[in-house]
């Protein structure tokens, strides 16, 4: 099953033949919303709007652990994150697509791991994006006729405020291409849960580093967002058509040799809590 996490503007997917909506309880609390399960392009899809379908959850209050845990329990093996971002580069124009390849974490207050309270694990994150999803998303975006940037560094800030101009210039100096508030710890947690992760990012505007004659209004940003969402839907359909059933990447074994605590030293309640994630390593 393929998970699609929708960001700002993407609260439902047209054409998805809905089979059920699941309200899932997790040991980490409630996910952002009910998870919509259905079929699209002959693939099983689980869709979750990360801010809730009525956009009531700000980035710093998203329960990322519950979201990823719930998708894991449903049997999701791959996640495509569709995210509205700000562009930090002149050549990445609003309306283009960016297939993100790296992340920089500037968040401060978020629960970012499943592994604590008696269990220690360190998953690799040098390549945070699944190589299979990356390639297929890129090809699908190009074939959808969208100007697409292959690779890019996404900085995740805490929000909900945007950056000051001084910070915006700083991010550019350290090599950031797009800026958002939600992909971390989402991507960390997906890796910990051995779920493949990839991001289709759509710049709605230039961040405040860009000084132009044109005054950016909320209305313009919303217009751009609407156009982007139409593109995102097209790309997702092509992506679903192409993604093979079997995973050949290493994401599925991310926990192999990553859990430091020996099984006999892991508290029973943690074993129970994390069963969907670490169950196969406890045998
Ligand atoms: Zn993968």
Please describe the topology of this protein.
Layout lengths: L1 E5 L10 E6 L12 E6 L2 E7 L14 H11 L3 E10 L9 E3 L2 E5 L24 H13 L4 E3 L2 E5 L7 H9 L4 E3 L2 H10 L3 E11 L11 H25 L25 H6 L1 H4 L5
Parallel strand pairs: 1-4, 1-5, 5-11, 6-8, 7-9, 9-10
Antiparallel strand pairs: 2-3, 3-4, 5-10, 6-11
Helix pairs in contact: 2-5
This protein binds zinc ion (ZN).
Could you characterize the architecture of this molecule?
Strand 3 and strand 4 form a beta hairpin. 28% of the residues lie in helices and 23% in strands. It is built from seven helices and eleven strands. The protein has one domain: Nucleoside phosphorylase domain (Rossmann fold), CATH 3.40.50.1580. The protein is an alpha/beta fold and 283 residues long. It is globular. The mean pLDDT is 95. Zinc ion binds next to loops.
In brief:
This protein has helices at 64-74, 131-143, 165-173, 183-192, 218-242, 268-273, 275-278, and strands spanning 2-6, 17-22, 35-40, 43-49, 78-87, 97-99, 102-106, 148-150, 153-157, 178-180, 196-206. By secondary structure, the chain is of the alpha/beta class.
Classify the secondary structure makeup into a structural class: alpha/beta
Number of domains: 1
The CATH class label is: Alpha Beta
> Which strand-content bin applies to the residues?
15-25%
**Helix content range:** 25-40%
Bound molecules: zinc ion
Rough outline = globular
| Average pLDDT for all residues | 95
CATH architecture: 3-Layer(aba) Sandwich
Please give the number of β-strands. Answer: 11
């Amino acid at each position: 099953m393929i998970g699609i996490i929708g960001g700002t503007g993407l609260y439902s997917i047209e054409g998805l033949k809905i089979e059920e909506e699941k309200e899932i309880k997790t040991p980490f609390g409630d996910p952002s919303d009910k998870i919509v399960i259905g079929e699209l392009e002959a693939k099983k899809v689980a869709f979750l709007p990360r801010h809730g379908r009525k956009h009531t959850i700000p980035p710093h209050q998203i329960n990322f652990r519950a979201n990823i845990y719930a998708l894991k329990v449903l049997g999701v093996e791959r996640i495509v994150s569709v995210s509205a971002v700000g562009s930090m580069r002149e050549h990445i124009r609003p309306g283009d697509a960016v297939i993100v390849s790296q992340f920089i974490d500037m968040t401060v207050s978020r629960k970012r791991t499943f592994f604590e309270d008696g269990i220690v694990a360190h998953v690799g994150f040098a390549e945070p994006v699944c190589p299979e999803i990356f390639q297929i998303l890129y090809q699908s975006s190009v074939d959808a006729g969208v100007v697409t940037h292959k690779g890019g560094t996404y900085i995740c800030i805490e929000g909900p405020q945007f950056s000051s101009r001084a910070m915006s210039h700083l991010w550019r100096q350290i090599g950031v291409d797009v800026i958002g508030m939600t992909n971390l710890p989402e991507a960390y947690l997906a890796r910990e849960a051995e779920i493949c992760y990839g991001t289709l990012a759509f710049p709605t505007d230039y961040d405040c580093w860009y000084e132009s004659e044109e005054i950016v209004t909320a209305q313009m940003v919303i217009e751009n967002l609407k156009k982007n969402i139409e593109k995102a839907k097209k790309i997702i359909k092509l992506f679903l058509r192409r993604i093979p059933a079997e995973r050949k990447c290493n994401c599925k074994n991310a926990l192999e040799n990553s859990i430091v605590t020996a099984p006999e030293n892991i508290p029973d309640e943690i074993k129970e809590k994390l069963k969907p994630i670490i169950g196969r390593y406890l045998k």
